[in-house]
Design brief:
CATH superfamily: YbaK/aminoacyl-tRNA synthetase-associated domain
Helix content: 25-40%
Strand content: 15-25%
Number of helices: 5
Order of helices and strands: HEHEEHEHEEEHE
Number of strands: 8
Length: 151
């Protein structure tokens, strides 16, 4: 079931989440298979922890990986991937279902390589969901800053 706060944001923007069995879309590969799209169209949301105990959300294509060097040049601090508990505590979502909407406690960075697709699919708050949207919609709705942090 899509979390209420996410559902309200989707409704406000005229979007509808795709919902599947819980646990069926926890990875980009599984989400792409379930939705029937390319892996790169899945907008994976990864929580990053800065050395100074700040957190950032990086949204990137499902077939991309974050470049530590590029990320450090954007954030200006050393980082690491947040663990399961940190991700759930900071975002309110479990890994595999992190939604980039309605987060006011982290800065959001959206890799520009996602813009190569007409339609992308971020999670809608569960590991059995996705929502079709454009790159520009994702930037607008999430308040995310376009960046270049992936290879």
């Amino acid at each position: 079931m899509i979390p209420t706060n996410v559902q309200k944001i989707l409704e406000k923007h005229g979007l509808t989440a795709l919902e599947f069995e819980p646990g069926t879309t926890p990875t980009s590969e599984k989400a792409a298979e379930k939705i029937g799209v390319e892996v790169g169209q899945i907008a994976k949301s990864l929580l990053i922890k800065g050395k100074n105990d700040t957190y950032f959300l990086v949204v990137c294509a499902g077939d991309a990986r974050i470049s530590n060097q590029k990320l450090k040049s954007v954030l200006n601090i050393k980082t690491r991937m947040a663990n399961y508990e940190e991700t759930e505590r900071i975002t309110g979502f479990k890994p595999g279902g992190v939604c980039p909407f309605g987060l006011d406690n982290v800065d959001i960075f959206i890799d520009q390589k996602l813009s190569r697709y007409d339609v992308i699919y971020p999670a809608a708050g569960t590991d059995g969901s996705g929502v079709a949207m454009t790159y520009d919609q994702l930037c607008e709705i999430s308040g995310g800053q376009p960046c270049d942090v992936c290879v």
